[in-house]
């Protein structure tokens, strides 16, 4: 897709590096100027980035709500839209979303374990947790391209 701005790929890189707030800022600037047909695409990724930012801060409600809204926005696009593997991205995101929903909002210890396993939050002071019998293998969603620029 030639009409995807170069700044979008900066946002993808920020997302994949766990710089979710920076990704939000980058994609928001694109989303504001985007034609209506592309707004939900940018906003969907933006919302998932903000959801992961909320997760890193232990905000279960903000995370689960925005993650669900972001996935719903992206589901209206073809699975290879913008040369991204949206199918895998949505699957990864939905796995994490389902786990968080099943966990519920009132489980601070489990929430901290999820944050640590994903390497979010203050992972510098607390190393990421390995998968265990009580915590399934969780991973952060990754935006992957089908072909290079």
Counting helices, strands and paired strands, the structural category is mainly alpha
Q: List the uncertain runs.
A: none
Number of DSSP E strands: 0
What is the beta-strand fraction?
A: under 5%
Shape category: globular
Distance between the termini: 10 Å
- Percent range for helical residues? 55-70%
Write the element-wise H/E pattern from the N-terminal end onward: HHHHHH
Tally of helical runs: 6
Q: Radius of gyration, Cα only, in angstroms?
A: 15 Å
For the biggest sheet, the summary is: none
**pLDDT averaged over residues:** 89
Question: Helices and strands in order, then pairings?
Answer:
Blueprint lengths: L5 H11 L3 H14 L2 H21 L3 H15 L11 H18 L4 H10 L32
Helix pairs in contact: 1-2, 2-3, 3-4, 4-5
Could you characterize what this model shows?
There is one protein chain. With about 150 residues, the chain is mainly α. Helix content is about 60%, strand content about 0%. The protein is built from six helices and no strands. It has helices at about 5-15, 20-35, 35-55, 60-75, 85-105, 110-115. Helix 1 (about 5-15) runs antiparallel to helix 2 (about 20-35) and helix 3 runs antiparallel to helix 4 (about 60-75). The relative contact order is 0.14.
Key features?
149 residues, mainly alpha, 6 helices, 60% helix
Short structural summary:
This protein has 149 residues and is mostly helical.
